[in-house]
Design brief:
By secondary structure, the protein is mainly beta. The chain has 2 helices and 26 strands. The longest helix has 12 residues.
């Protein structure tokens, strides 16, 4: 957390990057403090609330307000006609905190901004750190990086050799189209050319946050491997760090479950029609759920962890086809069945999950 003192009153507040599903703590303290006013601004939206003090100290968690600011924004869609764009999964939030005494006289005031990310890292994880991804070249693909400053330079390596230098005029979480990568390589490396890109490791200090630090000049941010597989079930999802991920799974057996809500209609409540025997009746209200086993064979430990985020993501889409280069790609929302996932100590292991197709329509009486 950041800390400042204004007019003799101490304020603790979130870092320049924070997460909407972690505690978003503001703490104020000082002599005669009676209550604080918190004003949250984002674009043309503004919300305010008050918090009473106890023993001249106020503590509040405003994460519910931040989560509400993402309403209507959360999806994994991407504009494939441009090289890169700002991610919808982070927003710049301005916050003002005013401190008052019992007579409603203002004692102190601070204001700050923070980039709020739609995510929740866990203890020990490094956010915006090195990742190894796979681009399945017959399918749409993008990759995300947080840029902390304007005009950050990214160096793209073609199979390890420097090939292309990008200068990005904006900052924040950015999504990059796969077309950014030079064609024909077996793998690509993405480097922080000037050592300006910040990373943060989540720790278990009292404030439940982390500090952002730079990785050093020309530090490796991403390795993207090429895979030319053509068949399978292609999914995209939002991981716990607020980035969009993709994977092509091998499809296994399909299960179709039919369930009835046990409603029963007797035919003898009216005239007997169509030859029905009066008291036999019939059932109505069936439901159908289709599920498919998915497998990513022989993945390493880091890839297994990345894929496991799929199981807890509230936003998972299945690719249905279409020309994504012309913005004609089609996706359908799906659900990953909840359950236990066992990670072994082996160097390579299969990742297996079960996908549920949402909203299979059936006839209802």
């Amino acid at each position: 957390m950041r800390q400042t003192v204004n007019n003799g009153y101490s304020f603790f507040y979130p870092d320049e990057v924070y997460f909407a599903f972690l505690p978003c703590i503001i703490k104020a303290s000082g002599s005669n403090l009676s209550w604080i006013e918190v004003i949250i601004r984002c674009g043309n939206k503004e919300r305010a609330y008050n918090v009473e003090a106890f023993n001249s100290e106020c503590i509040t968690d405003f994460k519910t307000y931040v989560q509400a600011l993402f309403d209507g924004r959360i999806n994994a869609a991407y504009d494939w006609t441009i090289g890169y764009d700002s991610s919808v999964l982070n927003i710049l939030v301005g916050i003002e905190v005013n401190a008052y005494d019992a007579g409603n006289v203002q004692l102190a005031s601070i204001d700050f901004t923070t980039n709020m990310v739609w995510g929740a890292p866990k203890y020990g994880e490094t956010w915006n750190g090195y990742k190894r991804l796979t681009w399945f070249t017959h399918y749409p693909f993008s990759f995300g990086i947080y840029l902390s400053k304007l005009n950050t330079k990214l160096l793209i390596g073609y199979e390890g050799a420097p090939n292309k230098l990008l200068e990005i005029p904006t900052y924040g979480m950015m999504d990059f189209n796969a077309d950014t990568l030079p064609s024909g390589a077996k793998y690509w490396n993405i480097y922080d050319y000037d050592g300006e890109i910040q990373q943060g490791t989540f720790d278990n200090t009292f404030d439940l946050t982390f500090r952002l630090t730079t990785g050093g000049k020309q530090s490796l941010l991403l390795r993207i491997d090429r895979d030319d597989a053509e068949s399978g079930i292609y999914l995209r999802w939002i991981d716990r760090h607020g980035f969009i991920r993709y994977w092509l799974f091998a499809a296994g057996e399909e299960t179709r479950e039919i369930a009835s809500d046990l409603s029963f209609i007797r035919n003898n409540l009216a005239d007997y029609l169509y030859g029905y025997y009066g008291d036999n009746g019939r059932r109505q209200g069936y439901e159908r759920t289709d599920s498919i086993k998915l497998c990513a064979p022989l993945v390493d430990s880091d890839t297994f962890d990345m894929l496991q985020d799929l199981a807890s993501s509230p936003v998972v889409d299945m690719y249905l086809g279409g020309d994504w280069t012309q913005e004609e790609d089609m996706w359908m929302s799906v659900t990953i069945k909840a359950g236990s996932y066992t990670k072994s100590t082996a160097c390579l292991q299969d990742f297996v999950c079960e996908m549920i197709i949402n909203n299979i329509n059936v006839q209802r009486l």
